[in-house]
Amino acid sequence: MSSPLLNSTAPLPIRFVIVGGGISGLSAAYTLCKAGHEVRVLEKAPGLGYPSSGIRVPPNMSKILKKWVGKEELDKLAVLNVASPCIDINSGVCIGVTPWEPTVMAETGGEFLMMKHEDVHRLVYRLAISAGAEVNFGVSVANVSPGSPTPCVTLSSGETIDTDVVIGADGRSSIVRPVVCDFEDNEDPCPTGTTVYSGVVAAEQLKGDPKLEHFIKSDEWAIGFGTGMTICCFPVSAKSELAFALFLPDECADPSLSQSETPESWYNSVPTSSIQPEGLALYLRRLMLKAPTLCRSQWLQRDQAEEWVDESGRIVLLGEAAHPFPPGTTYATAAGLEDAVVLGTLFSHLSSTNQITTLLNAYQEIRETRCRILAHTDTSNASLMMLPPGPARDARDRILSAPKNEWDEDSATRKEFDGLAELFGYEAEDAAMQWWVDWGRYIHDRSPTRTVSASPSLSVEKLSLSSPEC
Fold this sequence. Notes:
Blueprint: E1 15-19, H1 23-34, E2 38-43, E3 54-57, H2 59-69, H3 71-75, E4 79-80, E5 83-88, E6 94-99, H4 102-108, E7 113-116, H5 117-131, E8 134-137, E9 141-145, E10 152-155, E11 160-162, E12 165-168, H6 177-180, E13 190-202, H7 210-217, E14 222-226, E15 229-236, E16 241-249, E17 268-271, H8 282-289, E18 293-301, E19 315-317, H9 332-347, H10 356-385, H11 391-400, H12 412-418, H13 420-424, H14 428-438
Parallel strand pairs: 1-2, 1-12, 2-8, 5-14, 12-19
Antiparallel strand pairs: 3-7, 4-7, 5-6, 9-10, 10-11, 13-16, 13-18, 14-15, 15-16, 17-18
Helix pairs in contact: 1-5, 1-9, 2-9, 9-10, 9-14
């Protein structure tokens, strides 16, 4: 299909306020500005650059970033993932290596990359700003309320903002979600018994340690398997740093986490010495101890929201506010970018305010099953890595130690990997355009009920990312 998002703007520009300036929120700001709309982002953090670790960028996400900035710019920040060594977390011995064959990746239309969260965050920030979005840091939202017909956002400062649509992109503990969802959707999340610690180590600190130097020199996403715990580590920022994420049982975590007001937040920074995981191979301990600090987040089970759009039809959830993922897993960031592409593509066709609610409901219709599958896959993958001793674990290790073409077709491990091609090959913009062709054109109305002055979108399709930081 063609790429209307970058080549056309909506007949009717409207105003959006996005609560949350993370990767998902800023990506939505970019796609909506490119579609010709006026966008203001409200982020409670003081600015960019807060502590973060790495993220895996599967082909379904790398395709989006490549369209937005081009391969050359993306290669400056990313590392290509060519294989995943599987390591016994206790002994440190490699069980087997799963290659990400170039021919298979080519069929998906993208590449499996490894990037630093902060690098992606800055990238989409620059895109959003350059497309015309207004991004306000250090802003706390006190309340979001439906209106007649337009919603209102009230800041902690007392300022009120009237807008046409409010997007809640404020993560797993969203303050917008209770406005959209009923009581059952907002019950307290259930602990899973797992806490995730993440960190980044400069490549210079790994010199002279052969075990750790291998991680930074390789093009691999290494996965450690253990009882109730797992670790993954991979090079980021063009191999200038090594990122890792360690999943531990809650009882091995810093006890102060349970007293945190925001146990799911990645803003919880703790000293590296605060945890001493038993049984972790010595070289993996050395790696962890080289990180200046760790970010921690408790894995609390939250269900996907049943409704992503409120009764007024003007307040909508995006990213993990709508579909929470296990922290530190593969698809959360990718799903947020897909959300943004679908939303921007749909609203590039807006010609009447009467269409707003229909397009928001279409966005949920297009995205909810896809996001449920991705979240299930992430949860299943994490469980597979943390199996206790027994027949299931023995079968997993036996399969991983064999060549991939010899894997048992009925095994859980084989099923996990066989499902990846469909997940990787997804095209968010195509999904939105298919809905428009099948259904959207029948609601087309070229009689705008109200016009606002929106910020102009850029005419360029690719943006150089060498511009100064804010």
